Amino acid sequence: MMIEVSGLSKRYGAKVAVDNVSFTVRPGRVTGFLGPNGAGKSTTLRVLLGLDHPTGGTALIEGKRYRDLRHPLRKVGALLEGAGPVPERRAVDHLTWIAQSNRIPRRRVWEVLDLVGLSDAARQPVKKYSLGMGQRLGIAAALLGDPEILVLDEPVNGLDPDGIRWVRNFLRGYAASGRTVLLSSHLMAEMAGTADEAVVISRGRIVAHGSLDAITAGHPSLETAFFALTGDRAGW
């Protein structure tokens, strides 16, 4: 399944968050979505996932808006920063509620808990989880429907080196199976080792889109290419 963003714009009052953004995310590849804080990454992802309405243009999943997908969790799994379960709820209950609401078998809950390494902590309330454990739970929720597309915003935030390595290898394998991965991250070294291509956004506009080799041509690293493209010398 393909993601197609075309002429997308989003305004909040007088502020232009996203300005005529267009890009395509293809199956079989990990596509990185890069940009400084406030560049428009999160807004674009929120519109794609039906959480915000665009001012103009479209963000489509296999030609449809997210809200028009018949079984959305079976098509798209997502992890967004700031979204999370009720802190007092147990992890297994959180995932079971999501599964039931999407007619996903209960056995899948335990499959994804095992996949992300949370089986032993499944009956703990989420408020006792570390940041990294919370990220693993968010990834588990994204994987519940065994979706054809993954949209992940900062998935390795708070993970230890082993967890980061697991996410990297998992996403590359997921894409290699013919599925679609859109990955937003501020960790340049990790993105360089995970993504096949990248979309770079700055001040609400796309400034580069292509293979990592093309984007880094003439630069010693993805980080220096990013700074050159965005003019951001102060970091993220």
Oligomer: single chain
- Helix tally equals 9
Question: What does the radius of gyration come to?
Answer: 18 Å
In whole angstroms, the N-to-C terminal distance is 31 Å
CATH class of the domain at 3-81 and 149-230: Alpha Beta
Let me know the average pLDDT: 91
The fourth-level CATH homologous superfamily of the domain at 3-81 and 149-230 is: P-loop containing nucleotide triphosphate hydrolases
Largest sheet entry: 6 strands, mixed
Strand order of the largest sheet: 5-6-7-3-8-9
Question: What is the annotated CATH architecture of the domain at 3-81 and 149-230?
Answer: 3-Layer(aba) Sandwich
Helix content class:
25-40%
Return the structural class.
alpha/beta
Number of strands: 9
Q: Could you tell me the strand content as a percent range?
A: 25-35%
Order of helices and strands: EEEHEHEHHHEHEHEEHH
CATH topology of the domain at 3-81 and 149-230: Rossmann fold
Instruction: Point out poorly predicted stretches.
Output: none
Overall 3D shape: globular
